[in-house]
Amino acid sequence: MLQHARPVPRIAPLADAFAPAPGYLDAATVGLPARATAAAMHAALDDWQAGNPDLAGYDAAVASARESYARLVGVGVTDVAIGSQTSVLVGLVAAALPDGAEVLTVDGDFSSVVYPFLAHAHRGVTVRHVPVEALPDEIRAGTAVVAFSLVQSRDGRVADADAITAAARRTGALTLCDTTQAGWLPIDAGRFDVTVCSAYKWLSAPRGVAFLTARAPVVDLLPALAAGWYAGDDVWGSCYGPHMRLATGARRLDVSPAWLCWVGAAPALELWAGADLGAVRDHTVRLADDLRTGLGLAPAGSAIVSLPDPDGRVAERLRAADLRVAGRAGGVRLAFHVWNDADDVARARAALGA
Asked: Which residue in 89, 142, 210, 325 is deepest, having the highest Cβ count within 10 Å?
């Protein structure tokens, strides 16, 4: 019999914000759009098709999404930059490193956290890869940056952020935390020097919406490599050269937004900014640990369940039961979010013969 099968009551309003999608266990790959997101994007497409693109409305959507994200992760709105992809934002940190700097990363972390640093090998930047559990002990005096995902994409392991940030403070290393797979957790971005997040997974935004947070004075160390009109102090007054006057704070790092993506992102971020993330964590972890318990595995305290699947047969069984899952790194990954319930756990257990 399932343990903890009853849903967390505070989740019901959040679940109702999404159209039913039984068996969708793939938020770690791509999240589902809230009803409000789909409606906003349909309306914007209709207006565009009718020859009435709302540029002022697009700017308002960007501002709304930025403000909601700032509330969601507990920082000031001036500490938030907008972008399109995680790797682009991580690249700003990589470009700020001096020649010969050492970067500490997680062995097997998502490439968007690692590749931007490896791309600077030609100027002596070195990257050390260690198990996520070893990060705190491996930060040393010569480490310039420790870059890691708070939740590992491949298997859902959660990094010990307290130990990592404490060790980094002792040695003077900067902390760069990717929170993309941690949207089911309450997050205080202010505890890290820099955070990055692609919002199209757990935060239900369209792909092409990403955020960076940087606390002072670190934000001033990051180069505005993609500076364009949207990074200008006066956005619409920055459309032409030759003079450049960038915005202050993190907005100087902004990338020109893909407008319709942000139209959809604004209601999604508003939804999550007003949510009880503690309840989201309790609900998602409860479902994931119920599945693990049913399979004879120990609870892991993560919304993501990863099972060995070297030949892909486990994923085939789950998909044959109309469950949406992902194959990752020789395993099959199941991710539980607010739209999931005990029925999804029961279907997964049945498909796995548990």
From this structure: 89
Q: Which two tokens stand for residue 145?
A: 């940056």
Residue 155's φ and ψ, nearest 5 degrees, are -145, 0
Q: How many domains does the chain have?
A: 2
- What is the C-alpha separation between 315 and 325, in angstroms, rounded? 7
> What single letter denotes the amino acid at residue 211?
F
How far apart, in whole angstroms, are the C-alpha atoms of residue 346 and residue 101?
49
Shared domain check, 154 and 95: yes
Structural domain boundaries enclosing 92: 55-273
| 329 CB-near residues (< 8 Å, 6+ apart) | 108, 154, 155
Asked if residue 143 lies in contact with residue 111, where contact means CB atoms within 8 angstroms, the answer is no
Q: What is the mean pLDDT of the chain?
A: 95
Strand 126-130 versus strand 102-106 pairing type: parallel
Beta partners for residue 104, in sequence order: 128, 146
Q: Are residues 173 and 75 in the same domain?
A: yes
Is the peptide bond between 20 and the residue preceding it cis, with omega within 30 degrees of 0?
A: no
The per-residue DSSP string of 213-250 comes to EE-TTGGGGS--TT--GGGBSSGGG-SS-S---BPSGG
Contact (CB, 8 A) for 93 and 147? yes
Tell me: do 60 and 192 sit in the same domain: yes
Cα(197)–Cα(282) distance, rounded to whole angstroms? 22
Rounded to an integer, what distance in angstroms lies between the CA atom of residue 241 and that of residue 239?
Answer: 7
Distance from the Cα of residue 352 to its chain's centroid: 29
Cα torsion 58, 62, 63, 64 to 10°: value is 100
> In this structure, are residues 292 and 305 in contact, taking their beta carbons and an 8 Å threshold?
yes
Classify residue 315 by its DSSP letter. Answer: H
pLDDT of residue 354: 74
Question: Is residue 108 a contact partner of residue 329, using CB atoms and an 8 Å limit?
Answer: yes
39 located within any domain? no
In the chain the beta strands, taken as DSSP E runs, fall at 80-83, 102-106, 126-130, 143-149, 174-178, 194-198, 210-214, 304-308, 326-328, 331-335
Q: What is the pLDDT of residues 277-335, one digit of tens each?
A: 999 999 999 999 999 999 999 999 999 999 999 999 999 999 999 999 999 999 999 99
- What tokens appear for 269 in the block? 């971020």
